[in-house]
Amino acid sequence: MSVFGTFPNEDARVEKKDGSVAGPYKAIFAGTSIIVPDAHADIEEGDVILRKLPSGKDERSIATQVTFFQKMHSIPSHYQIKFKKGSLHKMQDKPSHNITINGAQSVQIGDFNTQNVINSFQALKNQIESSSATAADKEEAQSLLSKLFSHPLVTSILGAAAGVVLG
pTM to 2 decimals? Predict the structure, then answer.
C-alpha cells in the first residue's frame, strides 16, 4: 500500500489557463498543500485546482508553486502544490473603469450592451439620408436596413432597441 493510501483522497480537477479541464486526479488536501500522487497529472503554476464540496460547489485553489517529486523508497512519485484560495475567473480579466460625470443630462454605462450597436446603425441611417445618392438608391438602402431590423433573429438579439433605429 502506498504511503499516500492512508490519507483521505478526493477527486480534484485542474482548470488550465486556456479554460480546458484535466482530470479528475486523486488528491490529498493537506492544509497549505495539495498532494497529487499521479506522476502523469497535468498541473502547472497558474492552474486552478477544483475540489467538489459537499454543497456541490467547486472550491477553487490557484496553484502558486507546483513541485514534482520522483519516487523515493516507499514514497511514490507525486506533485506537491502550494496554492492560494481564489476564483481566477475569466470575467475578472475585464478592466475596471473609474468614471466621473459632471453636469450630464443623460448617461449610459455598461458592458456588453446594445447601445453602441444602435448608435452605429443610427449613424448609418443618418448617413444614408444625408448622402448625395439618388432618391432611389437611398430608398433601397433604407429598405434593406429596415428589412434587417425586422428579421426575427435580429429583433430577438437587439430587442426593442431595434425599433429605435427604424424610427
Answer: 0.49
